[in-house]
Fold methylated-DNA--[protein]-cysteine S-methyltransferase.
Amino acid sequence: MEKKADTPIYWSVVAHEEWNLIIAATNAGLCYVGSPGQPLAAIAEWTGRRWPGRMLQRDDGKLQPYAKELAGYLQGKQRSFAMPLDLQGTPFQLAVWRALCGIPYGQTLSYSELAEQLQRPSAVRAVGTAIGANPVLITVPCHRVIGKDGALTGYRGGLDMKARLLRLEREVLTAGGAQMHA
């Protein structure tokens, strides 16, 4: 876990269709994936809170491997990520984020199911709050968590983005199944 104030947080933009996602990484790994169309000021504010004293520095080359993996996912070409992550959070948030990474591609869990999986069935709201604090959209798949009734609920990237990501995963799985049976 890097803490050196003289080491910058590197950032770049991943463009996919009409989405422009700001991504950021430390030398240790990806630490941020923003919402579509989010202004640079939002990541500057986030960096100031999570990484006080660290400067932002654009470096498209350094972030190219992260951008390539994210683009591959958004194009339906890959289902998982190999990139290193550098997540900063409380022990509870980190536990929730690890649990999110365990939700299989194309599947969903409700907030209460996730709380039960974490052996904290009465902590549904706390689980929701931790999910909302997930700094790495898509790669830590918080879009796979839905309401108990199956409804799409809060998502930092917006409900349209959440719906599109879930639809993409379903379509990739359906196409994969069709190719296997062809």
Observations:
- The mean pLDDT is 89.
- The longest strand covers residues 9-16.
